[in-house]
TrEMBL record, chains A, B:
Descriptive protein name: Thiamine-monophosphate kinase
Family: Belongs to the thiamine-monophosphate kinase family.
Keywords: ATP-binding, Kinase, Magnesium, Metal-binding, Nucleotide-binding, Thiamine biosynthesis, Transferase
Residues that hold Mg(2+) 5 according to the record: 236
Location of the PurM-like N-terminal domain: 35-148
Residue ranges occupied by any PurM-like C-terminal domain in the UniProt entry: 196-302
Binding site for Mg(2+) 3: 37, 82, 233
Organism annotation: Dyadobacter soli
GO biological process entries: thiamine biosynthetic process; thiamine diphosphate biosynthetic process
Length: 340, 340
């Protein structure tokens, strides 16, 4: 009898761990393989960065409310964000596309309009890919190649005790945007004559539908002369991604609820949907902001950058991440995050 | 009213042409974007090569007869083959995987066993990727990064009149292997007690299930001091891929039926299934052999390499590809190939 182990018994992270355990780089120019936002390749003068992601209709996006142009933009931005998270400069991207015959040529045009716009915004070239047919909706994979000066690379596993923890932009918006869009979809499905109630919610909707990769901050850190001691992009959520940094660096962290940057619209949407705004900020993914650490000496150099918020610091308590709440209690964070 | 144009009205190549028309590289280090086996990136001393492909269950492979270990191997080999087709050396690959819960952990292990074996055989590192869930079977995308010395790169669009046309290995085997496997599947579905009749067909079955990327020939050309004047890998089929070289180089070609390298098992299977062996060689895809041109002066340097067959030559008749049959007639080749 063959053994059959269900993937669900391991979970997604368990499966990935199992896969990764058996894989070891062997080439001298593979500086870093699996386990960071991008693989790192020694190109001599510089490091090359290589990353890839896949997005499936019905799993990662819902085309009943996701405009194809925005989807194209978001997928390129997601690839770029992984390069940004290494403190790198993206250069080239490739796209694989699988389409069912439900899609028209005009729909494909829309998707590529969004991709081309993102390529222009982030100054990258779309240099290749594969187009094929699908029996099950739209599937897109993106790969991105970038470069970084060797001394400027930021890994996940190099945070040091007493480093300061920073995030860019604001958190939880993409998650709240998704909740609102899904609510409106339910309303519409129940009664197609209902108009969507999204007035005054444009910012969080945009956070979901058209996120930006924070290349602006990568450039501003360079101008400020600051190299993050570690960095990751916030695709899974602050709690989960901070735990990655801590686990891989062998450190802990303390973050302060009152320091979490949350937009007014995120607060309003959270209140309307009865979700804690801090929960959205901690657990909500897809913000594509950067989470990074800097040494204390960098504080003066970036404290006036309005795009950067100091949310806590790194400790030597390996793997322990603690949230100091507004009510002054201390709550351990898990990958599932924190429920107020 | 919005216009709706069906993708089928353009066809796969038409759609790809439409997409590509609107995409132009803008960065100085993008040497070659869409339109070759891999994108070419200027790394200073050398060129970097970047390529990607996607494979979907039910479209590109049938798991009722495709062992997962072989599938893993084949997908890595397909990525490597695109690097080989630029006369490059593959270094790193990434894999994205989408799985439905029909797959067990053991099945995923099998798939990765095949990938790891291919990585070892082709001396590349598996450096990253994404694992996600799917509602519709198995989807895999592969990206490969490689390098090539600038003076050694082989493009598709640089064949010259009077160059000699070469192929590696033999042709049509992967296609005949697929036909046999599909026949046995039909037999089995009609009567599950029937045993498969695949005795003496191991070579063509292997050509379908476990193709090799021809890195061996890339290294042997280097040892011989020969740089192909153009090159492409045979994934779509000789006719289609030769037409790519001719169209992109602005040249024509003459090939000789009697020169087509076809294995004995391919002949036997073709005869058994009432398919012309030359048709299989011309139209059958997935052989992952290399089709390349060399200047006449290279002839002496590689004529004794048993892996290389000279099948014809390049002419100045733009876009015209002619097959000289064994019966001494001359037949124009189209992308759909040739039916004897």
């Amino acid at each position: 009898m063959e053994t059959r182990t269900e993937i669900s018994s391991l979970g997604e992270f368990g499966l990935i761990q199992r896969i990764n355990k058996g894989i070891r780089p062997t080439l001298p120019d593979t500086v870093r393989g699996i386990g960071d936002d991008a693989a790192v390749i020694d190109l001599g003068e510089e490091f090359g960065l290589l990353t890839t992601d896949m997005f499936l209709e019905g799993i990662h996006f819902d085309l009943t409310f996701f405009p194809l142009k925005h989807l194209g933009y978001k997928i390129i931005a997601a690839g770029i964000s992984d390069i940004a998270a290494m403190n790198g400069i993206p250069r080239q991207v490739t796209i694989n596309l699988a389409l069912s015959n439900r899609f028209s040529v005009e729909a494909v045009d829309e998707l590529y309009e969004g991709m081309k716009l993102a390529c222009k915004d982030f100054n990258v070239d779309l240099v290749g890919g594969d187009t094929t047919s699908s029996r099950s909706g739209l599937i897109i994979s993106v790969s991105a190649f970038g470069k970084v000066k060797k001394e400027k690379i930021a890994y996940r596993n190099t945070a040091q005790p007493n480093d300061l923890l920073c995030v860019t932009g604001d958190l939880g918006g993409a998650y709240m945007g998704l909740q609102l869009l899904e609510r409106e979809k339910q309303v519409f499905m129940a009664n197609p004559n209902m108009q969507p109630e999204l007035d005054g919610k444009d910012y969080v909707i945009q956070r979901q539908l058209r996120p930006e990769a924070r290349m602006d901050v990568v450039y501003e850190l360079e101008e400020a002369g600051v190299i993050p001691t570690s960095m990751i992009d916030l695709s899974d959520g602050l709690a989960s991604d901070l735990l990655h940094i801590c686990a891989q660096s062998g450190v802990g962290a303390v973050i302060f609820e009152e320091r979490l940057p949350i937009d007014e619209q995120t607060y309003l949407a959270a209140s309307e949907l009865n979700i804690g705004a801090a929960t959205a900020a901690l657990n909500g993914g897809e913000d594509y902001e950067l989470l990074f650490t800097v040494s204390q000496s960098a504080y003066e150099l970036i404290k006036n950058n309005p795009k950067i918020t100091f949310i806590g610091y790194i400790t030597d308590k390996k793997g322990e991440v603690e949230l100091h709440t507004k009510g002054d209690s201390r709550v351990p964070l898990t990958a599932q995050g924190w429920n107020a």
